[in-house]
Design a protein that fits this description.
17% strand; globular; TIM Barrel; alpha/beta
Protein backbone atom coordinates (compact mmCIF):
# COMPACT_ATOMS: atom_id res chain seq x y z
CA UNK A 1 0.00 0.00 0.00
CA UNK A 2 1.43 3.37 -0.99
CA UNK A 3 1.68 6.11 1.58
CA UNK A 4 -1.08 8.13 -0.07
CA UNK A 5 -3.55 5.30 -0.55
CA UNK A 6 -6.95 5.75 1.08
CA UNK A 7 -8.96 2.63 1.89
CA UNK A 8 -12.73 2.28 1.56
CA UNK A 9 -14.55 0.49 4.37
CA UNK A 10 -18.23 -0.03 3.56
CA UNK A 11 -20.65 0.12 6.47
CA UNK A 12 -23.49 -2.36 5.90
CA UNK A 13 -25.62 -1.49 8.96
CA UNK A 14 -28.50 -0.29 6.80
CA UNK A 15 -28.62 -3.56 4.90
CA UNK A 16 -29.43 -5.03 8.31
CA UNK A 17 -31.93 -2.21 8.92
CA UNK A 18 -33.91 -3.42 5.89
CA UNK A 19 -33.66 -7.02 7.09
CA UNK A 20 -34.82 -6.16 10.61
CA UNK A 21 -37.88 -4.34 9.27
CA UNK A 22 -39.40 -7.80 8.73
CA UNK A 23 -37.25 -9.70 11.26
CA UNK A 24 -36.30 -12.09 8.50
CA UNK A 25 -33.14 -13.34 6.86
CA UNK A 26 -33.00 -11.13 3.80
CA UNK A 27 -31.19 -9.19 2.59
CA UNK A 28 -28.18 -11.25 3.64
CA UNK A 29 -25.36 -9.35 5.34
CA UNK A 30 -22.90 -12.02 4.28
CA UNK A 31 -23.91 -11.62 0.66
CA UNK A 32 -23.80 -7.82 0.98
CA UNK A 33 -20.28 -7.97 2.40
CA UNK A 34 -19.15 -10.29 -0.36
CA UNK A 35 -20.61 -8.05 -3.06
CA UNK A 36 -19.02 -4.96 -1.51
CA UNK A 37 -15.60 -6.57 -1.38
CA UNK A 38 -15.90 -7.92 -4.92
CA UNK A 39 -16.74 -4.37 -6.04
CA UNK A 40 -13.56 -3.03 -4.47
CA UNK A 41 -14.23 -2.37 -0.78
CA UNK A 42 -11.11 -2.76 1.32
CA UNK A 43 -13.10 -3.64 4.41
CA UNK A 44 -16.52 -3.99 6.00
CA UNK A 45 -17.79 -1.94 8.94
CA UNK A 46 -20.71 -2.76 11.25
CA UNK A 47 -22.05 -1.20 14.44
CA UNK A 48 -23.33 -3.57 17.12
CA UNK A 49 -25.55 -1.20 19.05
CA UNK A 50 -26.67 -1.93 22.59
CA UNK A 51 -30.31 -1.87 21.43
CA UNK A 52 -29.51 -4.26 18.52
CA UNK A 53 -31.61 -2.19 16.13
CA UNK A 54 -29.83 -3.52 13.05
CA UNK A 55 -26.68 -5.65 13.47
CA UNK A 56 -27.29 -8.75 15.61
CA UNK A 57 -24.82 -10.80 17.66
CA UNK A 58 -24.95 -13.72 15.20
CA UNK A 59 -23.94 -11.44 12.33
CA UNK A 60 -20.45 -10.90 13.71
CA UNK A 61 -19.04 -14.45 13.54
CA UNK A 62 -20.68 -14.93 10.14
CA UNK A 63 -19.01 -11.79 8.81
CA UNK A 64 -15.65 -12.53 10.43
CA UNK A 65 -15.67 -15.88 8.67
CA UNK A 66 -16.12 -14.47 5.15
CA UNK A 67 -14.73 -10.91 5.14
CA UNK A 68 -11.41 -10.96 3.33
CA UNK A 69 -10.35 -7.39 4.11
CA UNK A 70 -10.66 -5.41 7.31
CA UNK A 71 -13.62 -6.01 9.62
CA UNK A 72 -14.28 -2.96 11.75
CA UNK A 73 -16.71 -3.12 14.67
CA UNK A 74 -18.21 0.15 15.81
CA UNK A 75 -19.34 0.02 19.43
CA UNK A 76 -20.08 2.08 22.51
CA UNK A 77 -17.49 1.87 25.30
CA UNK A 78 -19.44 -1.05 26.75
CA UNK A 79 -17.89 -3.96 28.62
CA UNK A 80 -20.67 -6.26 27.40
CA UNK A 81 -19.96 -5.44 23.76
CA UNK A 82 -16.22 -5.74 24.39
CA UNK A 83 -16.73 -9.31 25.58
CA UNK A 84 -18.36 -10.12 22.25
CA UNK A 85 -15.58 -8.35 20.35
CA UNK A 86 -12.94 -10.29 22.27
CA UNK A 87 -14.46 -13.53 20.97
CA UNK A 88 -14.85 -12.37 17.35
CA UNK A 89 -11.53 -10.51 17.07
CA UNK A 90 -12.35 -7.89 14.42
CA UNK A 91 -9.32 -6.09 13.01
CA UNK A 92 -10.42 -2.78 14.52
CA UNK A 93 -12.86 -1.45 17.09
CA UNK A 94 -14.15 2.08 16.60
CA UNK A 95 -15.44 3.46 19.88
CA UNK A 96 -18.43 5.73 19.32
CA UNK A 97 -20.97 7.54 21.51
CA UNK A 98 -24.38 5.98 21.55
CA UNK A 99 -27.85 7.23 22.49
CA UNK A 100 -30.87 4.98 22.18
CA UNK A 101 -33.14 7.68 20.75
CA UNK A 102 -30.80 8.78 17.96
CA UNK A 103 -31.37 7.74 14.35
CA UNK A 104 -27.64 7.37 13.78
CA UNK A 105 -24.46 8.40 15.56
CA UNK A 106 -24.85 12.15 15.99
CA UNK A 107 -21.32 13.22 16.82
CA UNK A 108 -17.97 12.32 18.26
CA UNK A 109 -17.06 11.07 21.70
CA UNK A 110 -16.82 13.66 24.46
CA UNK A 111 -13.25 12.69 25.30
CA UNK A 112 -12.51 15.71 27.49
CA UNK A 113 -15.28 14.89 29.98
CA UNK A 114 -14.64 11.14 30.01
CA UNK A 115 -10.87 10.83 30.02
CA UNK A 116 -10.58 8.49 33.00
CA UNK A 117 -13.27 6.08 31.81
CA UNK A 118 -11.97 6.05 28.23
CA UNK A 119 -8.40 5.46 29.36
CA UNK A 120 -9.57 2.53 31.48
CA UNK A 121 -11.66 1.14 28.61
CA UNK A 122 -8.79 1.39 26.14
CA UNK A 123 -6.63 -0.54 28.60
CA UNK A 124 -9.27 -3.28 28.61
CA UNK A 125 -9.29 -3.28 24.81
CA UNK A 126 -5.53 -3.69 24.79
CA UNK A 127 -5.74 -6.48 27.37
CA UNK A 128 -8.14 -8.26 25.00
CA UNK A 129 -5.48 -8.08 22.25
CA UNK A 130 -7.65 -5.75 20.19
CA UNK A 131 -6.97 -2.40 18.56
CA UNK A 132 -9.25 0.59 18.98
CA UNK A 133 -9.95 3.89 17.28
CA UNK A 134 -11.88 6.77 18.84
CA UNK A 135 -14.62 8.47 16.81
CA UNK A 136 -14.16 12.16 17.57
CA UNK A 137 -14.89 15.66 16.35
CA UNK A 138 -12.16 17.38 14.27
CA UNK A 139 -11.10 19.55 17.19
CA UNK A 140 -7.47 19.98 18.24
CA UNK A 141 -8.23 19.89 21.98
CA UNK A 142 -10.19 16.65 21.56
CA UNK A 143 -7.42 15.09 19.49
CA UNK A 144 -4.86 15.92 22.18
CA UNK A 145 -7.16 14.43 24.82
CA UNK A 146 -7.52 11.27 22.71
CA UNK A 147 -3.74 11.01 22.64
CA UNK A 148 -3.55 11.50 26.41
CA UNK A 149 -5.98 8.64 27.10
CA UNK A 150 -3.83 6.29 25.04
CA UNK A 151 -5.54 6.20 21.65
CA UNK A 152 -3.30 6.01 18.59
CA UNK A 153 -6.05 5.73 15.98
CA UNK A 154 -8.93 8.13 15.48
CA UNK A 155 -11.85 8.53 13.10
CA UNK A 156 -12.73 12.14 12.42
CA UNK A 157 -16.46 12.82 12.38
CA UNK A 158 -17.31 14.41 9.02
CA UNK A 159 -21.02 14.82 9.71
CA UNK A 160 -21.01 18.60 10.19
CA UNK A 161 -19.23 19.03 6.87
CA UNK A 162 -21.55 16.55 5.14
CA UNK A 163 -24.64 18.39 6.40
CA UNK A 164 -23.57 21.60 4.67
CA UNK A 165 -24.52 22.33 1.04
CA UNK A 166 -21.69 21.27 -1.25
CA UNK A 167 -19.42 24.20 -2.23
CA UNK A 168 -20.99 26.46 0.40
CA UNK A 169 -19.01 28.75 2.68
CA UNK A 170 -20.10 26.62 5.63
CA UNK A 171 -18.80 23.46 3.97
CA UNK A 172 -15.46 25.15 3.28
CA UNK A 173 -15.19 26.12 6.96
CA UNK A 174 -15.91 22.58 8.16
CA UNK A 175 -13.55 21.12 5.55
CA UNK A 176 -10.76 23.38 6.80
CA UNK A 177 -11.33 22.10 10.34
CA UNK A 178 -11.06 18.49 9.15
CA UNK A 179 -7.87 19.26 7.22
CA UNK A 180 -6.26 21.00 10.20
CA UNK A 181 -7.35 18.18 12.51
CA UNK A 182 -5.89 15.51 10.21
CA UNK A 183 -2.58 17.34 9.99
CA UNK A 184 -2.39 17.83 13.76
CA UNK A 185 -3.34 14.22 14.51
CA UNK A 186 -0.74 12.97 12.03
CA UNK A 187 1.89 15.12 13.73
CA UNK A 188 1.12 13.33 17.01
CA UNK A 189 1.55 9.94 15.34
CA UNK A 190 -2.12 9.03 14.95
CA UNK A 191 -3.46 6.83 12.18
CA UNK A 192 -6.32 9.00 10.94
CA UNK A 193 -9.60 7.70 9.52
CA UNK A 194 -12.74 9.67 8.68
CA UNK A 195 -16.41 9.11 8.10
CA UNK A 196 -20.10 9.99 8.50
CA UNK A 197 -22.40 11.42 5.87
CA UNK A 198 -19.96 11.12 2.98
CA UNK A 199 -21.37 10.66 -0.53
CA UNK A 200 -20.46 11.06 -4.19
CA UNK A 201 -21.02 14.82 -4.06
CA UNK A 202 -19.04 15.78 -0.94
CA UNK A 203 -16.36 13.08 -1.07
CA UNK A 204 -13.95 14.65 -3.63
CA UNK A 205 -13.01 17.50 -1.26
CA UNK A 206 -12.35 15.03 1.55
CA UNK A 207 -10.07 13.02 -0.74
CA UNK A 208 -7.85 16.08 -1.15
CA UNK A 209 -6.97 15.98 2.55
CA UNK A 210 -3.63 14.36 3.28
CA UNK A 211 -2.94 11.81 6.02
CA UNK A 212 -6.31 10.02 5.83
CA UNK A 213 -5.97 6.22 5.97
CA UNK A 214 -9.55 4.88 5.80
CA UNK A 215 -12.96 6.26 4.91
CA UNK A 216 -15.98 4.55 6.48
CA UNK A 217 -19.05 5.09 4.29
CA UNK A 218 -22.41 3.40 4.72
CA UNK A 219 -25.77 5.09 4.33
CA UNK A 220 -25.11 6.82 1.02
CA UNK A 221 -23.85 3.58 -0.54
CA UNK A 222 -26.82 1.51 0.66
CA UNK A 223 -29.24 4.27 -0.40
CA UNK A 224 -27.63 4.42 -3.85
CA UNK A 225 -27.76 0.63 -4.04
CA UNK A 226 -31.57 0.77 -3.99
CA UNK A 227 -31.37 2.44 -7.40
CA UNK A 228 -28.29 0.95 -9.08
CA UNK A 229 -27.43 -2.15 -7.06
CA UNK A 230 -24.83 -2.60 -4.32
CA UNK A 231 -21.99 -3.59 -6.62
CA UNK A 232 -22.36 -0.46 -8.75
CA UNK A 233 -22.83 1.78 -5.70
CA UNK A 234 -19.56 0.57 -4.18
CA UNK A 235 -17.76 0.82 -7.51
CA UNK A 236 -18.82 4.46 -7.91
CA UNK A 237 -17.26 5.44 -4.59
CA UNK A 238 -14.22 3.24 -5.04
CA UNK A 239 -13.62 4.81 -8.46
CA UNK A 240 -13.42 8.28 -6.92
CA UNK A 241 -10.96 7.07 -4.31
CA UNK A 242 -8.88 5.12 -6.83
CA UNK A 243 -8.48 8.18 -9.05
CA UNK A 244 -7.19 10.08 -6.02
CA UNK A 245 -4.81 7.28 -5.08
CA UNK A 246 -3.15 7.17 -8.51
Amino acid sequence: MGKSEILLCVNIDHVATIRQARKGETPSLVEAAQIAETAGADGITVHLREDRRHIQDDDLPALKKIVKGRLTLEMAPSKDILKIAAEIKPQLLTIVPEKREELTTEGGLNVLENMDSLKSFLNEVKASSLEASLFIEPELQTIKAAYDVGARRIELHTGKYANCPVSSYEAAEELAKIKTAAEFAHSLGFIVNAGHGLNLQNLPAILAITHLRELHIGHSIVARAVLVGLEEAVKEVKSLITRKNI
